[in-house]
Design a protein that fits this description.
The protein is α+β, with helices and mostly antiparallel strands. Helices cover 15% and strands 39% of the residues. It has one domain: Hypothetical upf0131 protein ytfp, CATH 3.10.490. It has a four-stranded antiparallel beta sheet with strand order 4-1-5-6, with no helix packed on it. β2 and β3 form a beta hairpin. The protein is globular and about 45 Å long.
Length: 117
């Protein structure tokens, strides 16, 4: 996203699933999920979130119909070991473990680069 600033890699509690071409994260898992934290421009934050929600398939009118929900979560920045609160897109259904592969590392880039699939 134009104007977004990468803060760094972060970890939160949850479980990541391989949904095919993209990951799905559930915050109710016992593992850890690795991702990146970006700071969005504050001058147009509301519009930036609307665009991201649309891209991720969030439905504000019928939340249960959306592919993802946007949730606030506490994460730990890897570089500084500091805690920050940020938004994460959580997969909107609970996948069955036998239906999708669990990304055991919790890191989608590592998973796809090593072709565990």
């Amino acid at each position: 996203m134009i104007g977004a600033k990468l803060i760094g890699q972060a970890i939160c509690k949850g479980r990541m699933y391989d949904l095919g071409w993209f990951p799905g994260v559930r915050l109710d898992g016992a593992g850890e999920v690795v991702g990146e934290v970006f700071e969005l421009p504050t001058d147009d934050l509301e519009q930036a979130l609307i665009r991201l929600d649309r891209y991720e398939g969030v439905s504000h009118t019928v939340p249960e119909a959306g592919l993802y929900t946007r949730e606030q979560v506490h994460v730990r920045l890897v570089a500084t070991n500091s805690a920050v609160t940020c938004w994460i897109y959580q997969y909107n259904t609970t996948p069955l473990d036998e239906q999708y592969n669990i990304v055991s590392s919790g890191d989608w880039l590592e998973y796809t680069n090593h072709q565990e699939r």
